[in-house]
Amino acid sequence: MQFHIPQYIDIEDKLFGPLTLKQAIYVAGGGGAIYLVWRIIPYIAIKAPIILAIAVFTWALAFYPKEKLGKPFIEILEAGFNYMLRDKLYTWKKTTKEAKAGKEEEFLPSMPMPTPSVPTGKLSSTSFNLDVRGKEEPEEKVLGEKDDIILK
What we know:
It comes from Candidatus Nomurabacteria bacterium CG2_30_43_9. The chain is mainly alpha-helical. The chain has a domain at about 15-85. The protein has helices at about 20-40, 45-65, 65-70, 75-85, 120-135, and strands at about 15, 20, 140, 150. The strands form two sheets. Strands 1-2 form a two-stranded antiparallel sheet. It has a two-stranded antiparallel sheet with strand order 3-4. Strand 3 and strand 4 (about 150) form a beta hairpin.
């Protein structure tokens, strides 16, 4: 028995002509907001910029490609609102200590600093050299006298 595997499940269905359900809701909401602004605000000089802002915002919600930002525009807005509304923890602020008046104490380490010991043996010395100096370019090697081939 063969099973049919659904394909293109990440693409939303077009329900209202070329618009998906989300896009249709955003466009209808933006159109309703524009209509309310048009009917309520009496002066064209005030309502024109507001209507333009609502139209641009509606277009961004409905049609901005998520490939451009990696997420849909509504998720970017949500993250921005969450950032603005939540408390922020500033961990990089330096706390200042007040200097004591009088004598200054010198810092004397209680224990001497350990010095690295050089490992013994070919494997451990190679490991130490790689850790300290990094990988160096190998020298040229001659394969044979007959061939006169030099490899790097």
